Amino acid sequence: MAFTDDVQNKAEELKGKAKEAAGKATGNEQAQVEGIGDQIKAEAGKVGDAIKDAASTIKDKLTGN
Length: 65
What we know:
The chain has about 60 residues and is an all-alpha fold. It has one domain (about 1-65). Helices cover about 90% and strands about 0% of the residues. Helix 1 runs antiparallel to helix 2 (about 30-65). Belongs to the UPF0337 (CsbD) family. InterPro entries: CsbD (IPR008462), YjbJ_sf (IPR036629). It comes from Propionimicrobium lymphophilum ACS-093-V-SCH5.
């Protein structure tokens, strides 16, 4: 997995946590939901990156690289 992907996913996760916390503090339910959505998006990015890495590893093993 590329370092930049890791950084982007972590930034998205932290943004989501901050937005969720701010929403809770102010009673803004929409901000809370958006924050949770950002965190889910970050997790989905992590899963997608893991799948790409696994596919690359399998390809390398099958082609003998």
